[in-house]
Amino acid sequence: MPAQPVYVSPNPETTKRGAFTEFFLERQCPEDADPKYKHLFFTHQNLMRMLINDSAMDPNREQTFSTPANSKNKVYFMWDFVTRSFQMLVATVKPRNPSGEAWMDIMMRSMLAQQLILDTTGRLESMNQSVGYNDDAGIEFSAEIKAEAEKLDDLP
Predict the structure, then answer these.
(1) From which domain of life does this come (predicted)?
(2) What's the average model confidence in pLDDT over 58-78?
(3) Helix 100-118 × helix 123-130 angle, to 10°
């Protein structure tokens, strides 16, 4: 049986979302990491930074990670998804040899994140509404977030 991955994070019960994100933004990518790993590492970090700093996160940023969000909007959802994807990347994928099931999971999550951020049909809003989240009115991803999301599948 393979060893269980080690998910390192601040305490979600006491750490606010802004500080929780900063914890992962301070993480350094190994210098000898594979170029594909580096690409996803830095692109996810950039997206986390942009999403947590988006004005749509203002109602949520100072809440602890485990507190139900004040505004369950699409920026919040994608911040959560991208942050968890980054956690998985650093906990389950070998930087020098990204491969196997864990790497495929990250690749699929990256593709889904890209599709949801760039989607113009209201798919993400519909997904949120289907579970009772109705906070997307007037919320759009910034041009910078969209440009960064476009890079997710631009692997070297």
Answers:
(1) Eukaryota
(2) 96
(3) 100
Structure confidence at residue 2 as a pLDDT band (50, 70, 90): low
Taking Cα atoms as reference points, which of 147, 137, 152 lies closest to residue 106?
152
Lowest mean per-residue pLDDT among 5-9, 34-38, 84-88, 110-114: 5-9
Average pLDDT of the segment spanning 56-82 = 96
Q: In this structure, are residues 81 and 25 in contact, taking their beta carbons and an 8 Å threshold? A: no
What average pLDDT does the chain have?
94
Enter the tokens of residue 79: 């911040």
- For residues 64-69, average pLDDT: 95
Q: What is the 3-state secondary structure (H, E, C) of the chain?
A: CCCCCCCCCCCCCCCEHHHHHHHHHCCCCCCCCCHHHHHHHHHHHHHHHHHHHCHHHCCCCCCECCCCCCCCCHHHHHHHHHHHHHHHHHHHCCCCCCCHHHHHHHHHHHHHHHHHHHCCCCHHHHHHHHCCCCCCCCCCCCHHHHHHHHHHHCCC
Degrees to nearest 5, angle at CA 47 with 64 and 80:
35
